[in-house]
Design brief:
Layout lengths: L4 E2 L9 H10 L18 H18 L5 E6 L2 H13 L5 E6 L3 H11 L3 E7 L13 E2 L6 E4 L1 E2 L4 E2 L5 E2 L3 E4 L16 E5 L10 E6 L16 H6 L9 H18 L2 H21 L3 E2 L11 E6 L5 H10 L2 E2 L10 E4 L6 H17 L3
Bound molecules: pyridoxal-5'-phosphate.
The site of pyridoxal-5'-phosphate has 11 residues, from helix 3.
């Protein structure tokens, strides 16, 4: 069976070897005779699975004993609430950079919780086509929040700002797609369903030093300290999602050879696609140079009348997921970790042929 080439924005592509391994292990997890979904979350198997997953994440991200990794539920959207709730109190100041859609949502959620939201910088006036240049930031706030990769607009920070308060980063659509010095970050979070695995589990990386500043008067289920105290087993964790993510992490470490190797492949994929678009007379990419995402390549078909036809023809050719987000329209190819260089070559070949057919 030949599989479509998958550019869906999230949930997105998973590595085929991982899916095959999951199928193989489905009915008998580690010689238990049971499926991983049937095991008690207090069993040694699941405790070991969580420990191993956390250790792999820390190893891949290059962080040490001063960080905790939590595996939570609720997606990135729950983190929009947990961050203000844990790191500030109502009426206190919190700072955000507004790079569009998810970054905007994050700050709106803080506002709903009656934090005093300060927008430190924004690219809204230019349709979120760039990342504001910020190297050093001084704010009078409990933390600064940024979104590492803007999934909808196709922009990404190449370097995070240095700031005098804790830096919280939404890495949902680019975690483990490149080497990042996570030691410069105080709190980072990412759901799994874009670059790391299936929906259902959210990775939160946080500096242990933050616990001293955390609010304690919050429900247990929303408290980072409570999840940390119970090693991400405070309540039933999403065992199956954690298990699949664990196999993806093994794939990154053992098959790909780690984040530096993966970054190289991802950079090659992105430049191939941007070069194709920049050289074309039919397609264009609005994200400004220096701010372009390597995970979500947003582009338009300049002849508006052809846009639907382009997306439909691609689908008929076995290339799926190219429709842009409903907020911005146009097209988008999400080239997450599991999308191979060959997949991108297939897309580029299709785009060149399409342009040739429609130039007169
Ligand atoms: C997709 C996405 C979200 C939303 O994640 P959910 O898990 O659906 O809540 C948040 N932030 C970014 C950067 C995203 O790409």
């Amino acid at each position: 069976m030949s599989r479509p080439v998958n550019f869906y924005p999230g949930p997105g592509a998973l590595p085929l070897p991982v899916l095959e391994r999951v199928r193989e292990e489905l009915l008998d997890y580690e010689d238990t005779g049971l499926c991983v979904m049937e095991l008690s979350h207090r069993s040694p198997h699941i405790i070991r699975l969580i420990d191993d997953t956390v250790a792999r994440i820390k190893r891949l991200l290059g962080v040490g004993e001063d960080f905790d990794v939590l595996l939570l539920q609720g997606g990135a959207s729950l983190q929009f609430c947990m961050i203000p709730m844990n790191l500030s109190a109502p009426g206190q100041k919190v700072a955000y950079v507004d790079t569009g859609y998810w970054a905007t949502k994050a700050m709106e959620e803080a506002g709903k919780m009656h934090r005093e939201v300060q927008v430190v910088a924004s690219s809204r006036e230019e349709n979120y086509t760039f990342i504001p240049r910020l190297d050093e930031v001084e704010v009078d706030a409990k933390y600064l929040h940024i979104c590492s990769n803007n999934t909808i607009y196709g922009t990404a920070w190449d370097r995070y700002p240095r700031v005098n308060v804790p830096l919280a980063v939404d890495m949902s659509s680019d975690i483990m797609s490149r080497v990042v010095d996570c030691n410069t970050v105080d709190l980072a979070y990412a759901h799994a369903q874009k670059t790391l695995g299936p929906a259902g589990v959210t990775v939160v990386l946080l500096k242990r030093g933050l616990y001293d500043r955390m609010e304690t008067d919050i429900p247990n289920i929303l408290s980072y300290a409570m999840h940390a105290k119970h090693n991400s087993n405070y309540h039933t964790p999403p065992c199956f999602a954690i298990y699949v993510m664990n196999r993806v992490l093994q794939w990154i470490e053992n098959d790909i050879g780690g984040l530096a190797a993966l970054e190289k492949i991802n950079a090659e994929k992105a430049s191939l696609l941007y070069e194709c678009i920049d050289a074309s007379k039919l397609f264009s990419a609005p994200a400004q140079a220096g701010s372009r995402s390597r995970m979500n390549v947003v582009f338009t078909v300049d002849r508006k009348d052809l846009e639907e036809d382009f997306i439909g023809s691609a689908e008929r050719a076995g290339i799926v997921g190219l429709r842009g987000h409903r907020r911005v329209g146009g097209c988008r190819a999400s080239i997450y970790n599991a999308v191979s260089l060959e997949d991108v070559e297939t897309l580029v070949g299709f785009m060149r042929a399409y342009e040739k057919r429609h130039s007169s």
